């Protein structure tokens, strides 16, 4: 599955809270989405670029506007920096997937014929968890469906909001109604 885990509106904070496995997968998966979204909008195809998951909700969102594409680029760039930090890579080291994104001509990407202007909220790719706010939906998803992956390296630790977003087993309360209880 392709995803970006929007655990906070600040992308640096969002990726700092990613579990180790999602730091690396975020760089790879977002690179696929970014290069595909650019090509969907007319960027010249190349065997050096990824083209996959064209109809995935995250790709469709990134391809909808240059502002959305740039937001995902910011997230992927932050994830790449987090990858360097977590595993003590040298500042010049680049994840291979990020190198593919860096090969794009950003001016040419900006000049593409994007279908819409402005930025919209990213899709909630959060399984059964949904909320009025996409950050809340991703936090519920993370706290309840991704706990088996909880491992943080490089001095990172569990996000402080995990307990607040964890729903007890057997509680059939939806994320939306849990939000109302917490207001």
- Taking all residues together, what is the mean pLDDT? 93
Strand-residue fraction? under 5%
Helix count from the secondary structure assignment: 9
* Whole-angstrom Rg: 17 Å
The SSE string, one letter per element, is HHHHHHHHH
Number of strands: 0
Major sheet description: none
* End-to-end Cα distance: 32 Å
Q: What is the number of independent domains?
A: 1
What sort of overall outline do the alpha carbons produce when their principal axes are compared? Answer: globular
Which ranges are low-confidence, i.e. pLDDT below 50, for 5 or more consecutive residues? 177-183
How does the SSE layout of this entry go?
Elements: H1 11-16, H2 20-40, H3 57-64, H4 66-86, H5 96-102, H6 106-110, H7 134-145, H8 162-165, H9 175-182
Helix pairs in contact: 2-3, 2-4, 2-5, 3-4
Please give a structural write-up:
The model is unreliable at about 175-183 (pLDDT under 50). With about 180 residues, this protein is mainly alpha-helical. The protein is globular and about 50 Å long. Helices cover about 50% and strands about 0% of the residues. The chain has nine helices and no strands.
Summarize this entry quickly.
The chain has 183 residues and is mainly α. It has helices at residues 11-16, 20-40, 57-64, 66-86, 96-102, 106-110, 134-145, 162-165, 175-182. Residues 177-183 have low confidence and may be disordered.
């Amino acid at each position: 599955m392709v995803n970006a885990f929007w655990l906070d509106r600040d992308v640096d904070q969002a990726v700092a809270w990613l579990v180790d496995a999602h730091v690396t997968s975020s760089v790879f998966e977002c690179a696929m989405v970014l290069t595909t979204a650019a090509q969907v909008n007319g960027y010249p195809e190349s065997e050096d670029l990824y083209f996959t998951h064209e109809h995935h909700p995250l790709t469709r969102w990134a391809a909808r506007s240059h502002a959305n594409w740039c937001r995902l680029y910011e997230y992927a760039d932050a994830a790449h920096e987090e990858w360097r930090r977590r595993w003590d890579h040298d500042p010049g080291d680049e994840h291979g997937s990020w190198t593919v994104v860096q090969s794009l001509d950003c001016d040419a990407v900006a000049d593409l014929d994007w279908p819409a202007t402005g930025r919209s909220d990213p899709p909630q790719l959060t399984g059964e968890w949904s909320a009025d706010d996409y950050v809340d939906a991703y936090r519920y998803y993370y706290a309840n469906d991704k706990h088996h992956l909880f491992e943080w390296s490089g001095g990172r630790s569990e996000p402080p909001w995990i307990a607040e977003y964890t729903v007890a087993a057997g509680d059939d309360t939806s994320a939306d109604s849990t939000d109302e209880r917490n207001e």
